Amino acid sequence: MDVSVDSDVLEKLHTKEATSLHRISDDLSACGVGKIVDLPQIIVVGEQSAGKSSVLEAISHIRFPVDSGVCTRFATELIFHHASETRIEASVRFADKTKPSQTFQRQKFHEDDLPDIIKEAKEHMGFSQDGKDFSKDVLRLEIEGPKIYPLSLVDLPGLYHTSSHNQSSGGRDTVDELVAGYMRQKNSIILVVVSANMNLVSHSALEKAKTIDPQRRRTIGVITKPDLALPSNAKEYIMVAKNQESAHKLQLGWHVLRNRGEDETSLEARDKLEASFFEKGAWATVPGEDLGIANFRKKLSGILFQHIRNSLPGVIEDIETKLRDRQDELTRLGTGRSDAKARRSYLLTIASDFQRLARDGCNGRYNDSFFGGLEDEDLKFRALLRNFNRVFDYILRTKGSTENIVFSEEDKSDENKLPGYLANFLGRYPYEFPDPKRITTEELSAELESKAAANQGREFPGSPNADLAMQLFKKQAAP
């Protein structure tokens, strides 16, 4: 596979410390630990034609679709991974989760190929040729290689407020929801792009960022098209660029970039013209570290590193947890058993331990940790057996007959009341037998007289049938 990107430019988005962290993370990941899963992603947010795609293009030297029309109709994720082998994969991830992702493999990727990939993705998404719709489907382009380090860039559709023949109110809602969804992701570094050729109050992205990131910890402002700013706007934007405008003050500050003109085909030429532009004029009063793409890459590299460093406590905790788990597993495995003698000895030890525990359980000696503490009872065999005997006795006395003979209806004896500890035991091991029917001695006498009369044989008067007692006993002994 052939990947042709400006690796020198992409490398500038990583500090030496960040590069070292990624290398260590890769080494640890090979052992199944220490993977930095919360990698930051750079997203661009702003009005249509504010220059969002141009900003990503300047950052990465990868050609994002840029023209005077509406280009970005869906989210495009450009994701770089460090790997030993080169791999390129483009996929469409549909908003409808019931539809599987549509993957289209590519054998090469050059920095000018992204517009063609986006065009192919539109076909998979079912866009009409006149492009009237916006979509929540996502194009994801993943590039891996040995000279590439983790980086995620996300190009988003521009915000708009007025409907037209090719931009419906429904499309506006789709864009708002899509943009807000990416902004809410905690690993998103939000680039709020505002163009200096528009009034500052016209940029609704500023208020959207303030709502979603009220502490302004993940938001960095980017002013584009300074060369097209009207004199009436330039002064206000310069104040914003210096981070001196209280309403739009950001923790990460602001930066000013000059967009590539349509007649400027070379990105290197674009960078040189930008540097020349900021050397003179009103914009030269802005601190140098807040001007130009070279300084912006440096600023972003620091922000990216800080984000990665903030995730380290979770990585360290993961490593410590996995290390404890492995140590526990080694302890449970015991010493090595490399030959038959060692394995035989190990099995004999297991058998001996089993015999000892079984003997202790039968004898009611529960000092081994196997049996648990004072409150545990599930493995204490002798105690279980004795409790089963007590419960069995209780069941026989209370449910071991068909009828419960009492002297009167008011007779309520407590002699069969179950102790509390046995009530809990019986709750875990229930005996599903019905309660006997209560019958008074008077009722029983009448019943016996009736049955004796109904079952008379050749006995003398006053003597019952010899078989009657046996039948009555069997009936009474049934549960």
UniProtKB/TrEMBL annotation:
An annotated GO cellular component: microtubule
SMART domains: DYNc
Keyword GTP-binding in annotation: yes
Database matches in PROSITE patterns: G_DYNAMIN_2
GO biological process: endocytosis; intracellular distribution of mitochondria; mitochondrial fission; peroxisome fission
Domain of life: Eukaryota
GO molecular function: GTP binding; GTPase activity; microtubule binding
Pfam families: Dynamin_M, Dynamin_N
Keywords on record: GTP-binding, Nucleotide-binding
Dynamin-type G domain boundaries: 36-313
Presence of keyword ATP-binding: no
Protein name stated in the entry: Dynamin-type G domain-containing protein
Species annotation: Fusarium irregulare
Taxonomy of the source species: Eukaryota, Fungi, Dikarya, Ascomycota, Pezizomycotina
